[in-house]
Amino acid sequence: MSRYVKISCMAPPNKEVDAELGLEETVLQMIARWKERLQHVLPERPDLIVLPECCDDPAFEGMRAEWLYEYYRYRGNRVRDFFAGIASANRCYIAYSAMIELPDGTFRNATQVIGRGGEICGVYHKNHITIRQKSTSDTLYGKEAHVIQTDFGRVACLICFDINFDELLEAYARQKPDVIVFSSAYHGGLMQAYRAYTCRAHFAGAIWQPDPCSIVNPVGEVVGESTHFYPFVTRTINLDCAVVHYDYNKAKLDAVKRKYGDKVRISDPGRLNAFLISSESEAFTIQDVVREFELELLDDYWVRCRADRGMPGHLEP
């Protein structure tokens, strides 16, 4: 049974501000610029909007870290509350990435997932901030990474430098997310496809320009990217999907196609020997198809391969 979700990923608007106008005017400028930028995707009626890392940071020539943290303290939750109003008015989720101050006066680089009613569904603290950020501020490393439940599926959050660390993605993979939300100041290159494949999840990346925002499927195919002239991308993905290997499945997949035709989609990225299959019908789920044709999921196949290697007499002395 198809589970279509429409996702929009956005680059930030112009962050340049006139600091001489003061902190209040700076906050108002950032809200106004995001209000304008959001008009490019809200008419698409997305289920989820992903914003880039530190999306409401202002910038000006000669800006000092001390001024920026003063801005964070003054801003508080005002920009977040603006996005909460947008989420509520448009019945969508928003992944809002920004620096936040905790009650003890320390800071976190965080993604707050705002729900369709403007409520906070979950918060992720960046597990892997950079050494530079730690050495120049009161920002601390996050230590937990839990998927966030939404009405369309399970969301895992990554922020920028996080994408490089296997232990974080392996922790997420065990939780079986449906979507990885990546709020970032850089693209990550080949790591985007690798992390989508690691978690068998769709990947939604909101990136600072000039790199593109991107949406990637669980076998590493880019299904949508932003451009220079359109620094945002919206695509509809289907979360009723599964990843299977070529071995022992190819003949069965041919039989699936003969029976169900365009009601089941099979996506082969090439070179990987793994396929993404999805149900495009309201009559059955992809797991129904997996059971009917006794398809072996990729992760189950890896378990079986490891077990076979460990059987008596199978491993070289």
Automatic annotation (TrEMBL):
Q: What is this protein called?
A: Carbon-nitrogen hydrolase family protein
**Superkingdom of source:** Bacteria
Which Gene Ontology MF annotations are present? hydrolase activity
Keyword Iron in annotation:
no
| Pfam families reported for this sequence | CN_hydrolase (PF00795)
Q: Which UniProt keywords apply?
A: Hydrolase
Q: Which PROSITE patterns match?
A: CN_HYDROLASE
Organism the protein comes from: Cohnella hashimotonis
Q: Which PANTHER family does this one have? A: BETA-UREIDOPROPIONASE (PTHR43674:SF2), NITRILASE C965.09-RELATED (PTHR43674)
* Start and end residues of each CN hydrolase domain: 7-239
InterPro entries to which the protein is assigned, alphabetical = Aliph_Amidase/BUP, C-N_Hydrolase, C-N_Hydrolase_sf
